[in-house]
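Exercise (ungraded).
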Amino acid sequence: MKVFPQLNHLALALVFCFVVSAPVQAHFGMIISDYPIISQENKEAALTLSFAHPFENHTMELVKPKTFFVVVNGEQQDLTGTLKEIQLNNHKAWSTSFSFQRPGVYQFIMEPQPYWEPSEDLSIIHYTKTIIPAYGDDEGWDTPAGLPTEIIPLLRPFGNYAGNSFTGQVLVKGIPAANAEVEVEYYNPANTYKAPTDYHVTQLVKTDANGVFSFTCPLAGWWGFAALTEADYTIKNPQGEEKGVELGAVLWTYFHSIDQTTN
Amino acid sequence: MQARTLITALVFAIFLSAHPCLAHKVRIFAWNEGDTIHTESKFSGGKPAQHATITVIDSNTGSELLNGETDAQGLFQFPFPDSDTTIKALDIIVNSGDGHKNSWHFEREPSSEKQIISTVENSVPEPQSLPTPPYNEEQLTRLMERVLEEKLAPIRRQLAENEERSPGIQDILGGVGYILGLAGIAAYMKSKKR
């Protein structure tokens, strides 16, 4: 009987040591535009591609993406060659400047090289999508880009206010993914906000039987949704061992504060 | 027969009244091909704005230069008013009636030559041949931007690094964890002594 309180103390100490300091971080592929909506006042946008923990503003190395392209009005344009290497928080990231020539809803898509994450013993591939409308066009934002996995927005993914609810459908190989986990993070580039607990850093919502999820975004800014599924194949890690692959369908969408009159 | 006519009339009435729906904002986009300026007017949702009035004004003086009407595809084109070389920019206004109005600002000089320098670390530009004096305004602006960018690059980098160094929430929580953990171990030792 005497042993128990002592054990409790030790256990408590260990719990505090490990649980409180354990970094619960979600990885997100990111495509962030300096203008979420293109108008005649700003016809060009700087796009930054990275791989990061968006809320904590912690960046990882992003080797040159396998492909980066834009789909608009049914046409696809490869932009991989326009990417320039930059440093974001002292880690490799990529940037390009895109000039919007015609009205349209532009879907920017990045397929990165697999990222080997030793702490999770798997490789990560995040198919990342950001949808930017130009000059008043508002059609085509729900057209699938035909990615191995992707989020189809059911809420028009632009022209929304903080406090609106985002709704999307997760597709894997074009088929709705039921019961899939969708991680949600707010992009917090200036560390403006502090999370009360680690749970708040990465929030989580699951899809229903039709692969649909809904999430209310309380803050103005970029919100990222990463629907995670396990690939039905393995790839080699840097040591040459066959390991599992986490596939992410990532979508970034911007919510405006209501008092802003422009972008 | 009469009932059918009535139904047809009703259907038409519903369709016609629904068409210029207030939720449909009109927008216009203009581009040039050679000396011809093309305009395209649409409602939100993608329907072309048919038979909408287009008015072209000189942005500087505000005087009307020409007007016309869009076709069934919402298109309207006109030659750039070349006779007057003082005209530098146009405002092209679409009016689809019912208070639906919008405009597009068209500048004679394409503004796409402007290079946006957007990144923190990518800011040291490649050396390029200097334009020979006398510089025109645009060249001078570009030159100044480049010099400024070169001077600012190290400062920006430092700022970025400082931002990186400040403790994040993870560091703080980690620190708290260690403190609580050590306190826990101390409590354990104390209770053991007892």
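Further reading is listed at the end of the chapter. For now, observe: Chain A has one domain: 27-256. The two ends of chain A are 66 Å apart (CA to CA).
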